[in-house]
Amino acid sequence: MKNTPFWFCFLCTFVLVGFHACKTEPLTIEIPGAPIPIEGEGETPEYVSIIESDLCAEGVISFEREVLPILVAGCAYSGCHNAASHEDGIVLEDYQGIRSEVEAGDPNDSEIYETITENPNDDDFMPPSPAYPLTSEQITIVRQWIQQGANNTTCRVPCNSENTSFAADIFPLIQDNCLGCHQPTNALGGINLEDYAHIKTFVANGQLMGSIKHTPGYFVMPPTGEKMTDCQIAQVQNWIIEGALDN
């Protein structure tokens, strides 16, 4: 990612017109994959309303939208299980690589599940110390996906871009999609997204939006796997427009 003079101008513009932007009539899009515009020089980001459709059936875990981001961020980074490093010959960047380490229907006989639930002092524990371990919520998602048959499910998870709480909406997105590569002990590119204060720095210089939108000239996040959905990107964009609050 990079810092450009444009984003300093953007911030000044945002301070002056932010409250007005929040009160304008939002553009409503209800089609999955509807594009969110990339702002040009001097333009102000637009508040976008997207309600996700093509949702998973109740209780079904989406491999593409839930499991893959967690394992890419937590395990498939440089020096571990990305394609370039392939530690122990294991690559966890896509369904095929992950599925080869899973026994469908049986988490306790699945190598991935065993390594993320072992004693943190064990040599096989993943992610290895000093990286953050997966959260209990993330581990539950992986376990349920395996129990359901470890299928390559591509359905979408509920998302309403008008939900812009940092604690409930924004930080979980960053935690699942970015934090594995951008925490204090593994701050790739010098970027630490461990908490609100650090994230706000990369909001202020434009790097966060440039990266999750895959804007040319920025390093993309996540670097492998699937790009965040348009609804998820809109959540982050709208949160920024509304003041990037610690709410």
List the helices and strands and how they pair.
Layout lengths: L4 H19 L3 E3 L18 E3 L12 H13 L19 H5 L11 H7 L18 H12 L18 H12 L18 H9 L2 H6 L17 H12 L6
Parallel strand pairs: 1-2
Features:
247 residues; mainly alpha; 2 domains; two-stranded parallel sheet; 9 helices; 38% helix; disordered N terminus
Structure description:
- The protein has 247 residues and is mainly α.
- The protein is built from 9 helices and 2 strands, in the order αββαααααααα.
- It has helices at residues 5-23, 63-75, 95-99, 111-117, 136-147, 166-177, 196-204, 207-212, 230-241, and strands at 27-29, 48-50.
- Helix 2 crosses helix 5 and helix 6 (166-177) packs across helix 9 (230-241).
- Mean pLDDT is 81; it is low at 1-42.
